[in-house]
Amino acid sequence: MKASTFRRVLNLWPPFLFNSIRVQSISADYSEAKVVLRLRPWNRNYVRSQFGGNLFAMTDPFWMLLVMHQLGNDYFVWDKAGAIDFVAPGREDVYAHFKLDPAVVDQLRAEAADGSKVLHWFETDVVTASGEVIARVRKQVYVRLKPKAR
Known about the structure:
By secondary structure, this protein is of the alpha+beta class. The protein has one domain: Hotdog Thioesterase (Thiol Ester Dehydrase, Chain A, Roll). It contains five helices and six strands; from the N terminus they run H-H-E-E-H-H-E-E-H-E-E. It has helices at 3-12, 14-17, 52-57, 62-71, 102-112, and strands at 21-26, 32-37, 75-86, 94-99, 118-127, 133-145. It has a six-stranded antiparallel sheet. It is globular.
């Protein structure tokens, strides 16, 4: 699927659509994605800042999706684990930028070449428009070469 079409599909996905999460861009080669979480009355927490679940949700699928599209259909790619560190209250729209380094893709291919399971941690900061860090998110991605591709 073309990245531009996939971006539109993600923007209509109910967990994003109803929580004001918007995929701003996905590069044509699936090496990069940019996401925004708009602060709205329906997605604020009790103290009127960004709801933590939405901060995590805005970052949740992207490392897995970028790796999956970069590696292709010969690999199993799954989210394995995740963690979030809330640094400051998000009292405005916040942004996340995911950029998959080609060297990491090559490393994952090399480590999975013999059929071994590979676990790799990725990190993303959620920031305001001015660059203030609101949260730090870590996601662990599982990669394994599919048996028929060995």
